[in-house]
Target: 6-carboxy-5,6,7,8-tetrahydropterin synthase
Amino acid sequence: MLQQFYPQVFHDYRYELNKDMQMAAAHFIDHQDAGRCRDTHGHTYFINITIAGDALDDAGFLVDFKTLKDEIHGAYDHTLLNDHPRFAEGLPTTEVVARVFWEQVDERLAARENRPYCLQVLVRETPTSYAIYRPKRGDHR
Ligand SMILES: Nc1nc2c(c(=O)[nH]1)N=C([C@H](O)[C@H](O)COP(=O)(O)OP(=O)(O)OP(=O)(O)O)CN2
Ligand SMILES: [Zn+2]
Model:
């Protein structure tokens, strides 16, 4: 089930879009405090990505919704997150997954002429648990 209500990001950009997606992925948290999560297990992750900017491209897009889906779902659906180089230095907790997805999306956006920004990535790991990554002002390009 895709979620219908999200924490808002307050900003001054003219345009904002949100892309929802969900994906199946496995992970394990290799840490003594992780309890049962030390064993490999799977989740249906729900992800919401918030993009904003002042300018659209020639097609009238901040960024194509499909680009965002390709970047995250295309890379991680039906995979073991721990196998990905982007998670090599961190444990794929919900918080870290949100931050890594933000880094990946914002790198992709940086290559666009209209220069949109990723303001927030929300990652829901279970029906009762989610995390959000938002860059600090100084983290922006
Ligand atoms: N800060 C974090 N705490 C926990 C994480 C995490 O990523 N960040 N992860 C886990 C587990 O991996 C698990 O995926 C989620 O745990 P939890 O919400 O406790 O899952 P339950 O379904 O058992 O929770 P209920 O309260 O029974 O719904 C643990 N902690
Ligand atoms: Zn888990």
Q: What stands out?
A: Residues 8 and 120 are 9 Å apart (CA to CA). The chain has one domain: 21-139. The chain has two helices and five strands. The longest helix spans residues 94-110.
